[in-house]
Amino acid sequence: MNSQQKQFIITGMHCASCAGLIERSLRDKPGVSQATVNFGAEKLHIRFDEERITAQQIKDAVREAGYRAEDIDSMDHGSHHHHEESMQVYRKKFIWGAILSMPLLFFMLLDFFSFPGKDLIMPRVGFLSLLIALPVQIILGAGFYRGFWSGLRMKTFNMDSLIAIGTSTATIYSLVEFIRYAVLQESVFAPLGEKIPNLYFEVSVFLITFVLLGKWLETRAKGKTSDAIQKLMGLQAKTARVRRNGQVVDIPVEQVVADDTVVVRPGEKVPVDGVIIQGLSSIDESMVTGESIPVEKKEGDAVIGATINKNGSFEFRATKVGSETMLAQIIRMVEEAQGSKAPIQDYADRISAWFVPAVFIAAMLTFIVWYFVLGSTLTYALLAFVAVIVIACPCALGLGTPTAVMVGTGKGAEQGILIKGGEPLEAASKIEAIVFDKTGTLTKGKPEVTDIVALTELDEKMLLTLAGSLEQSSEHSLAESIIERAKEDGIVFQGVQQFEAIPGHGVKGVIDGKEYFLGNRRLISRIGIDVERVEKRISRLEAAGKTVMLLANQEKLIGLVAAADVIKDSAREAIERLQRLKIQIYMITGDNQRTAHAIAGQLGITNVLAEVLPDQKAQEVKKLQEKGLKVAMVGDGINDSPALAQADLGIAMGSGTDVAMEAGGMVIVRNDLRQVIHAIQLSRSTLAKIKQNLFFALFYNVAGIPIAARVFAGVGIVLRPELAGLAMAFSSVSVVSNSLLLKGFKPDRKNYLSDIAPILMTIVFAGLFFLFAKISG
User: Fold this and answer.
1) Annotated catalytic, 569?
2) Which residue among 130, 159, 578, 763 is least packed, with the fewest CB closer than 10 Å?
């Protein structure tokens, strides 16, 4: 099986039911293991076996369902151009609909005004209305009929079905009345000063025009939800200055290749990722990491493409170009996140699946009750039927979650918080406990040797020589500290044979024919050497928060090497603030109990998981989950991968340009623990916005259907079908606009406009219903 993942832009969708229809049509295809359509982002995420089904066959299947799929790569990093095209199409259609609606509005007002020539116009109103309504219905409404037909073929109903049925009912009824009158009167014109009765061509014309207005405004608003990607794409440098054949030349950034020497002058953008080989400067990395203070860079330091060089000149060797750069990875990650679904979206999808058929049944019941039970006129019953059909389109329900996810993930990217999809975004809002890895997460991950204790005739220099030689091939952070100290002291390392790294214990190797061991108590005890006689010395060092490594040969313990890691500046504040959010904090480390508690005490952490081997971290996370806690794991994304994957939410702390970490649902680009708090705040704000959107989408339909069904006609509350369509359009626009309020999110600050949005939306909805009912009455 050759499994592949791919994204497509989907065009032609009008509601969440359309997305469900495409998903069902694809999941039935052989070779497709997963198909998810995000209505808000208008994207298809599909996993398939390319040996059984091709990308072209997937496109064909989407086309058979009545929609169109296009390769995302050919559309310039996502759906920006598609949004522009869709917006222009809806805009043109609305303008034509508005122009053609003007005469019908004039005809409606004829009864209220007197002017010369009125008696000549009145008899021709019906015929002229027919001439205007047919092109609107057939041409401007063609998309609704195509969607309706696709739904019938898939044995389902969608928004297109409701609009097509509603407008067709008004048009066909009016057409039948017109033909009947023309046949009986033998004329298509009424007598002088009169109009042909029972014609409602304006209902279908206004309804289609208002729906097109709503789709235009909705598409404009949805386009703004992906502004973050456009901003990120705009950061990319257009050209690069490189050394080629002994000369410095300017070339398009796309032509830069790995190992090119790139020259950067003050004020210029760094074109690609690389490592400085000459010069020094300070670089503004705020556009990528969110850190506003420029970072000092010197020879050997990494630089990130799209960042801005401040006041120095330097040259660097390109290491990552094109799609491998940090900026390209961020754009790709944000795109995938914005096209994903949050678990709460399943709730909306389930409602949408049965909601449209239920609305159709409700509309039929409305007609039956009014016409057959209450004895109203056919016209009155049909208008109530059409009003119910159009007011309850579930567009707002389908837009509530994806638009909020798109804005939330985009806002996170602007602040250096990369959220990999709707699922981790929702998970972050529910976290009850956070497990922090110690080394490299709570601490800087660069310990320094503080003590060298000789226990035999060997002096400190010899101990450091042996320890440094053993650690040459180790990748542990403690190994780096010993090697750095040895280099500072001018020590020349000896050759090591039969080197072996023992995870969670230490290292061993043969030097000058003799085997040596360097590690923790477990390693030394494993070879049968008693450490009891030096336990007091070890305890004193550990009580000071130092990690003690024991050096021994096969016969005895010969020395101790202690190193201490420095706690990050942001760690203490981050822990305190998370605790104020009622989140339980745990520290997990391979250090012994005494050292671990000493460091935890400095941070105010009381829950300590010490002496945990790397392969046991995931098990410790699982134990907390078994207690019923929603657990997040914060680590470096490499050694902690199993634990990050086990947790309900994995948060990987970015380092350098390594942001494409597979484990973990979030990546903190800036190595600042306060960003964990900001990620949780953003997630909670986004989920709150999603819940607001879903509530108002449901509230709108629950309140709107009985009004449209004329349940309150006895107290003068009646809603005309065309105004019901306008109300439906406004509901979708208001939900998207509510999601856009997340753009005002700022860490540690209240977003008052976003907070009062529910109250404003309630007032607006109530006002709209009241206004439209008064106009209809």
Assistant:
1) no
2) 763
